[in-house]
Automatic annotation (TrEMBL):
Lineage, top ranks: Bacteria, Bacillati, Actinomycetota, Actinomycetes, Kitasatosporales
Pfam family, one: Glrx-like
Source species: Streptomyces mangrovisoli
Coiled-coil boundaries: none
Gene3D superfamilies with a match to the protein in the record: Glutaredoxin
Name of the protein in question: NrdH-redoxin
Taxonomic superkingdom: Bacteria
Amino acid sequence: MSPLFRRKAAPGDRLVTLVRKPGCHLCDDAQEVVERVCEDLGVPWERKDISEDRDLYDTYWEQIPVVLVDGRQHTFWRVDEDRLRRELAG
């Protein structure tokens, strides 16, 4: 199938990853948005802590919180709820 005509993934087939660290108020805010959007749309999500993963730390330490959608960076620092909804619905 041509990449131009990729089938739209079902919500349950998507994955949102929140990369965060303890004691980060922006991370707490981001998690609230991710939880709400994912629950509303039926999209699974996971939380990863950069203090427990050296590769994530090396990649994202200046940008946390970081939101990945299906393994690709969607946003960092502040999560725009409407933008995340569009990405997951699209």
